Amino acid sequence: MKFRYSEYSIEQLHQEIGKLKEQAQKAEQLGNVSEVQVCERKMQVALAYTMSPDDFKKEEIYQLKMETGYKFKISYVNGVFAWGYRIDLLDKESEDIEALPISLLGKKVS
């Protein structure tokens, strides 16, 4: 049994995403909000491993899929995580650097 998404095949990643989606739906039915959030985060990380980090470039700005109106400016990419700064609705860049799975990045803005 594999424990690191980096060791999974694409098929195994898709199976894992499906399993996590089911777990999230069950948790939602039971009203377990924190378990839903954990499953969603795991799904985003697993999904990131199905994508190519080479498609995301330093200094480029992307829309955030889960947060309409917010953007993300990449400082660097490490594995399937983009490190950078969130940009709010007023185009103000956050002061703190953060890491997001590349699966959360939408269309390129610039």
Structural features, described:
A hairpin with a 2-residue loop joins β2 (71-78) and β3. The chain has two domains: 5-49, Hypothetical protein YfhH domain (Helix Hairpins, Orthogonal Bundle); 53-108, SH3 type barrels (Roll). Helices cover 33% and strands 25% of the residues. The radius of gyration is 15 Å and the shape is globular. Strands 4-3-2-1-5 form a five-stranded antiparallel β-sheet. It has helices at residues 10-29, 33-48, and strands at residues 61-64, 71-78, 81-87, 98-101, 105-108. It contains two helices and five strands, in the order ααβββββ. The N and C termini lie far apart (41 Å). α1 runs antiparallel to α2. The protein is an alpha+beta fold. The longest helix has 20 residues, at 10-29. This is Transcriptional regulator. InterPro entries: YfhH, YfhH-like.
CATH topology of the largest domain: SH3 type barrels
Number of strands: 5
Corresponding CATH architecture of the largest domain: Roll
Low-confidence stretches: none
Largest sheet: 5 strands, antiparallel
Q: Oligomer, anyone?
A: single chain
Q: Give Rg in angstroms.
A: 15 Å
Structural class: alpha+beta
Arithmetic mean pLDDT = 94
Query: How many domains in all?
Result: 2
**What is the strand content?**
15-25%
Pfam family, one: DUF1811
Organism: Oceanobacillus sojae
Protein name: Transcriptional regulator
